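REQUEST ID: PR-0412
SUBMITTED BY: lab tech R.K.
PRIORITY: routine
TASK: structure prediction, single protein chain
INPUT:
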Amino acid sequence: DRDTDKKRIEELLEENMVLEIAQKQSMNESAHLGWELEQLSKSTDLADSEKSFVFELNECASSRILKLEKDNQSLQNTIQELRDASLTSRESSLKFVELEKENQQLSKKIEKLQNQIEKEKQSNQDLETLSEELIKDKEQLQVIMETLKADKDRQIQDLKQENDHL
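STATUS: complete
OUTPUT:
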């Protein structure tokens, strides 16, 4: 879009220069015609028909100049609009680049957070496994303790019987 805008601007600038050159030539022709008219009026008296002809020529040249000035103004307005559009396009591109950078930063943050979540999950799994192992160990110790208690009670009873026997 920028390249086509630039090409269009260059084309319009060239066309504008051509119109300005044509306008200057027209003004020069008009001035030359005016000079010739003065020369003719100085050297001889012009008839009314010649005066009206010169007047028509001047009017034609003036209308042509006005038309060229309008075309020139229109082209300048178009050039300005294209420049504004180009600036808007550049601003949009810069905003897009900024948003892309921000998006990349956010993506990196999300990736870090996901890694932390994975580590926390792994840590929680490890803790659950350890907790399950501790519960099993506790149950085994309780079984052993009950067995030892039963053995102790039996030994006490055996010792009491032996003591009574003695």
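NOTES: Residues 2 and 87 are 10 Å apart (CA to CA).
REVIEWED BY: pending
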